[in-house]
Write a sequence for this structure.
């Protein structure tokens, strides 16, 4: 709970809802006849609507990226470290938009919302979403907000994949794409981890084929396990060693299967918190969207071919201890972009924090991120004159 | 390494080498700048000659400066080679004052000529008479305003002379297209022109395969 709102916070914010009646054709062949998008905005849109920045969220993110919903809220939005006055995504200069993606469980249409055609919860019947579908829906939000072209589309991890997809699908509708801790597609190992997470949910006796809500329950254990395995991939070996080492909760071995090591306690706590706040069907759907992401496949085979369509400038950033989407994966994107002669800059941030680093206020990261976006804001200002 | 490159650059009173180099690069060329520092050369070439290209750097402050200057910069250690760039990808590959600080100058030179049609290289000439006399008369490793380091902390691990460089080029079928040997202020004068290995402080070469 903030006793007072910090100076560099966007302050108290409210979510908005956009209802769209225009059907959305999806990659899976189905369509959403109508849908809701929940979003938040920070800062002010300028007269020419040229200073808008879209934030794309990752696997478990949502529209609440910065600031507080109330003075009772314990923590600010998930990317508060990077969004606010004077922060890398500077709300004194940018109009920042962040939405909850379709299929999410924080207000936008998804498994936990009502299917307007049946009057029932969507549950497992909500269509499978892809990164491309999300980007298309985000373009509808841009239309509604009067934003012809984003100054930048920005995201980390799965969010970075959306930023990349934007550049391919709507080349004229963004000036810059900022792709952080992402990959051009998942590796077999990435998919394998996702599959373990899905199997733990799908095999939970409380899953009931995704209709757990009809049984007044939810696959708690499955969600806990899914998050535990996911969380391991978000941290680095070094980060875990520094945070927990082999520390024991009670200082001695108990020769049993209860929590003994601090790392076990931490993972269980993370899993439990997550299981209470996240929907299992959404988790399944989000991991599949990750697995399916492969713009090269869609454009004829090579990433170069896919990126040939792009027109914007790119900033790609990675973290040297990230083994989920390692720097090599970011360099694949950078190399493809230099091959096709696009404007691209790349930085590899030195940190032991692993994949989660993109959410943290690491000084070197904040400096580089801020430097690039200052340039973007300068460009916008110069164009407005 | 780039950190050292930056420090090396600090002793260069003005970046006259940049204006010399930019004279050699035609309009609309594609350029790769190895150890591009704050991106000054690329920014100048972009603004004045419509040049497109990328800089490679590893120093954080320089990366940030390039970002802010709108210069394409990629964090990459020159000692790991350039194998992420295809053959003949660039018209020019430039490396100012970094040749003597890389692990294998011969390899980076070969790489530069693989990815670029031509390479432009500048380095401090270790054959300059002041350097020679320092070693000859003091019997110690030369320290000067051009080479401000002690033997134990110098980033300049592969210093060479004008003659060394030209011998290397001859042996490896590298053709020298253009050479400027200048003093520390990057001014050309008679003595360096007549006896470059003895009177040139900074050597600037344009070479090709």
């Amino acid at each position: 709970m903030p006793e007072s709102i910090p100076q560099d916070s966007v302050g108290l914010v409210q979510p908005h809802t956009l209802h769209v009646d225009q059907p959305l054709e999806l990659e899976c062949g189905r369509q959403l006849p109508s849908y809701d998008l929940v979003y938040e905005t920070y800062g002010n849109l300028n007269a020419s609507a040229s200073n808008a920045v879209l934030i794309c969220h990752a696997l478990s993110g949502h529209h609440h990226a910065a600031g507080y919903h109330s003075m009772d809220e314990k923590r600010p939005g998930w990317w508060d470290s990077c969004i606010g006055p004077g922060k890398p995504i500077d709300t004194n200069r940018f109009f920042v938009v962040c939405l909850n993606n379709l299929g999410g469980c924080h207000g936008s249409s998804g498994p936990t919302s009502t299917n307007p055609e049946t009057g029932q919860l969507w549950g497992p019947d909500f269509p499978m979403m892809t990164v491309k579908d999300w980007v298309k829906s985000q373009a509808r939000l841009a239309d509604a907000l009067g934003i012809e072209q984003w100054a930048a589309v920005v995201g980390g991890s799965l969010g970075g994949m959306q930023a990349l997809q934007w550049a391919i699908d709507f080349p004229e509708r963004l000036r810059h794409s900022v792709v952080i801790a992402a990959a051009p597609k998942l590796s077999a190992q990435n998919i394998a981890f996702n599959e373990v997470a899905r199997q733990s949910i799908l095999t939970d006796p409380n899953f009931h084929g995704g209709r757990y809500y009809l049984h007044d329950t939810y696959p708690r254990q499955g969600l806990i396990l899914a998050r535990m395995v996911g969380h391991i991939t978000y941290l680095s070996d070094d980060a875990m060693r520094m945070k927990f080492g082999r520390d024991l909760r009670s200082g001695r071995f108990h020769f049993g299967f209860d929590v003994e090591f601090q790392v076990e306690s931490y993972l269980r706590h993370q899993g439990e918190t997550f299981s209470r706040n996240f929907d299992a069907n959404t988790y399944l759907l989000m991991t599949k969207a990750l697995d399916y992401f492969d713009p090269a496949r869609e454009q004829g085979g090579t990433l170069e071919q896919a990126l040939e369509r792009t027109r914007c400038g790119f900033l790609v950033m990675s973290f040297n201890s990230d083994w989920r989407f390692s720097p090599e994966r970011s360099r694949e994107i950078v190399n493809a972009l230099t091959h096709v002669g696009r404007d691209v800059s790349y930085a590899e941030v030195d940190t032991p924090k692993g994949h989660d680093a993109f959410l943290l206020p690491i000084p070197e990261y904040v400096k580089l991120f801020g430097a690039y976006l200052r340039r973007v804001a300068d460009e916008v200002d110069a164009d407005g004159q | 390494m780039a950190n050292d490159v930056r420090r090396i650059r600090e002793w260069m009173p003005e970046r006259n080498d940049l204006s010399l180099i930019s004279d050699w690069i035609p309009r609309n060329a594609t350029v790769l700048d190895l150890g591009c520092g704050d991106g000054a050369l690329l920014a100048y070439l972009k603004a004045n000659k419509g040049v497109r290209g990328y800089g490679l750097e590893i120093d954080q402050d320089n990366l940030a400066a390039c970002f802010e200057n709108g210069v394409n910069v990629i964090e990459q250690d020159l000692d790991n080679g350039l194998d992420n760039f295809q053959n003949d990808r660039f018209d020019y590959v430039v490396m100012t004052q970094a040749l003597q600080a890389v692990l294998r100058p011969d390899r980076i030179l070969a790489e530069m000529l693989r990815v670029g049609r031509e390479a432009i290289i500048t380095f401090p000439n270790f054959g300059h008479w002041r350097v020679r006399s320092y070693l000859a008369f003091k019997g110690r490793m030369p320290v000067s305003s051009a080479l401000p380091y002690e033997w134990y902390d110098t980033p300049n691990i592969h210093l060479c002379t004008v003659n060394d460089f030209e011998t290397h080029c001859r042996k490896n079928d590298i053709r020298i297209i253009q050479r400027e040997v200048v003093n520390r202020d990057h001014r050309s004068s008679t003595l360096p022109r007549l006896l470059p290995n003895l009177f040139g402080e900074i050597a600037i070469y344009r070479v090709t395969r």
Summary: The two ends of chain A are 42 Å apart (CA to CA).
